[in-house]
Amino acid sequence: MVLPLLTWHLAKERGVSAITAGFIWTVANAAGAGMQWVAGDLSDRWGRRPLMWGASFLRVINLLALGWALAVQASISTIGALCVWNGILRAFFDPVANALVADLATDQQRVAAFSLQRLGTNIGWSAGPAVAGIALAAGVSYSTLFFWSAPVTLVAAVGLYWVPCPIQQARPSTPPGRSRFADLLAYRHDRPFMWFLAGTFLFFVLQAQMFVTLSYYAARTLKLTQVEVTHIYTLNGLLVVLLQLPAVALIRRVGRSRSLRFGCLGYAIAYATVGLTVG
């Protein structure tokens, strides 16, 4: 509901430069990426649900703090620090939620299971900006939307109680004198996996532009209002919802590898056409 609009707010209302906005999200995403390693280890030790609960409850506090920071016109460094904290908390929820889906689904069900998860995510992705757009058009302040988002996040955390969690198998201990970082480096000999990681990195470099560059471009170049930006995100979410299930059928027909190549190519073409838009 709120975070996709934060870059627009910083660019339009606070006069933040593109470099500063990009730096904030770079640090936030880098911190989140680093903490995913810790989150993965803890989720294997403690279980998926306790970690997701803890991250959700802390994220409620983070949303309230961001709402307060925006309401009182706190410094950009304060807002940036809260964004970094949000990135860290996401690292303790999103990858763990993906691992839980993998735990609950068989190999044959996995594509469909992740597609359904993606479907639910994009229902929220489209509904959140739609609600935000209606509220902003009615005169509700942007900072107030953070206070609205906090109880919604709390309800989602409570809902985790009814999500089944398989019993975690005890993980083998790391041999004496060998760090978990050494375990991570062992994958460097798996060439197909390393190529997959490289491709994933490049893909998400592009995908991250939706949260930073696109909002900044909409605010500064296209002169779009915050409400108009919510329409873009709502339409994006609705299109994913409509196309997700047909995409599952297509993936089963053409295969996962070929579908990934087509998807990346389509993503690149779509972003290139966005660059052709002028204000």
What does this structure look like?
The chain is mainly alpha-helical. Helices cover 76% and strands 0% of the residues. The chain is built from twelve helices and no strands. The chain has helices at 6-12, 18-46, 48-71, 76-91, 94-104, 110-137, 142-159, 180-185, 191-207, 213-220, 226-254, 256-275. It is globular and about 50 Å long. The model has no long low-confidence stretch (mean pLDDT 84).
Coarse structural class:
mainly alpha
Shape: globular
Helix content: over 70%
End-to-end Cα distance = 25 Å
Rg, rounded, reads 20 Å
> What is the number of beta strands?
0
User: Average pLDDT value?
Assistant: 84
Taking the sheet with the most strands, its summary is: none
Low-pLDDT sequence parts: none
Number of helical segments with 4 or more residues: 12
Topology pattern, helix = H, strand = E:
HHHHHHHHHHHH
Report the sheet-strand fraction. Answer: under 5%
Features of the shown structure:
single chain; 279 residues; mainly alpha; 12 helices
How are the secondary structure elements laid out?
Elements: H1 6-12, H2 18-46, H3 48-71, H4 76-91, H5 94-104, H6 110-137, H7 142-159, H8 180-185, H9 191-207, H10 213-220, H11 226-254, H12 256-275
Helix pairs in contact: 1-10, 2-3, 2-4, 3-4, 3-5, 3-7, 6-11, 11-12
